[in-house]
Write a structure and sequence with these properties.
By secondary structure, the chain is an alpha+beta fold. The chain is built from 3 helices and 3 strands, in the order αβααββ. A hairpin with a 3-residue loop joins strand 2 and strand 3.
Amino acid sequence: MEDLMRTSDRVVTNTTLLERIWDLSFDPNSTVVETHISRLRAKIDRPFDLPLLHTGRNIGYSLHGPR
């Protein structure tokens, strides 16, 4: 979450998240990032009307408020 907050409004790739947060080399079959994003969405997006966490399809994720 902190990494997404520091790069607010920019898409952070799955590879970058794996390397920065979990210190792992990119494994194209890994679902670590998707699993954690899903759990994060359940906490910060689902209870509210406007989502903060956004998916850059086949790229990564970004965190930003309404535009």
